[in-house]
Amino acid sequence: MNLFLDTADYRDLLKSYYERRKKEMPLYSYRMMGEKLGLDSSYLFRVLQKKHHLPAHALQKAKEMLGVVGRSAEYFDLLYAASVTKDVAQKEELMAKAIALRDVERHSLQAAELKMLENWWIPAVRAYLELSGGVVNPKQIAKDMCPPITEAQAQEAIEILKDAGLVKKLASGKLALADAHLTAGGPEKAKAVRKFQKQALQLASDALENIPVEERNISTLTLSVDKEAFEDLGDMAREFRRLVQKRVDSVEHPDRVMQLSMAFYPIARVRKK
């Protein structure tokens, strides 16, 4: 969820989250959202109507629900503090800090960043640099990719990541991952994402033949569902993705780069009269 919007009240973000979930899953309710926050539904309703504030014990749960960490979490905390304080000067100071974070985080996906999605190995190289401690060795990087790429492709990936601001060079000559949150819309992004997803799914298919079973986990389910179950499963998939991202954020010493692909699509339909 993109928190960096022109808003002055954290409750607008919670309300936006509720409305989005309600649209995605019509059965979603104040009770369901309240359970995640440790609040009863009536109290949550008053929070979303800006008649009450979240209690302190629900703040961390709210950030986990929204899936925000790092600078995004700090931004949420500042909005909360600014909303609850009655001191005008302090409110202005807190909002100024929040706006400063918003300006830093808001980052449009430009041509160089779209280029990152042209080939699967470019994001893979970025993740690999975290494993290598930022050591830049195109020959070794090329060899360690699965499947291997050329040294020229590894070097090109590094240059693209630099141009996009996704890695930055340190005084030691090593590269560090930049904390960039990229957002974009329009047909250019959609086309780039589709191309990347096709490559990712092809890699998953190739892994069935090329990767030992103990080093991968691939399974499939064929299901018969109705519209309500379809929407619920889609919501569960989105929640699972959030949980995956949260778990990965806690990894301190990664030793491999993995690609997780989830696909949920129709293979048969009943034609209605």
Report on this structure:
- The two termini are 40 Å apart.
- The strands form 2 sheets. The protein has a two-stranded parallel sheet. Strands 2-3 form a two-stranded antiparallel sheet.
- A hairpin with a 5-residue loop joins strand 2 (167-169) and strand 3 (175-177).
- It has 2 domains: 10-105, no CATH class; 113-218, Arc Repressor Mutant, subunit A (Orthogonal Bundle), CATH 1.10.10.
- It is globular and about 60 Å long.
- The chain contains 12 helices and 4 strands.
- Helix content is 57%, strand content 4%.
- With 273 residues, the chain is mainly alpha-helical.
Name the shape in a single word: globular
What is the end-to-end distance? 40 Å
Order of helices and strands: HHHHHHEHHHHEEEHH
Q: Which stretches are poorly predicted, pLDDT < 50 over at least 5 residues?
A: 104-109
Could you name the CATH topology of the largest domain?
Arc Repressor Mutant, subunit A
Spatial order of the strands in the main sheet?
Answer: 1-4
Strand content: under 5%
Topology overview:
Blueprint (H helix, E strand, L loop, with lengths): L9 H15 L5 H8 L3 H8 L10 H8 L3 H15 L3 H18 L1 E2 L2 H5 L5 H11 L6 H7 L6 H13 L3 E3 L5 E3 L4 E2 L3 H24 L16 H23 L24
Salient structural properties:
single chain, 273 residues, mainly alpha, Arc Repressor Mutant, subunit A, 2 domains, two-stranded parallel ribbon, two-stranded antiparallel ribbon, 12 helices, 4 strands, 57% helix
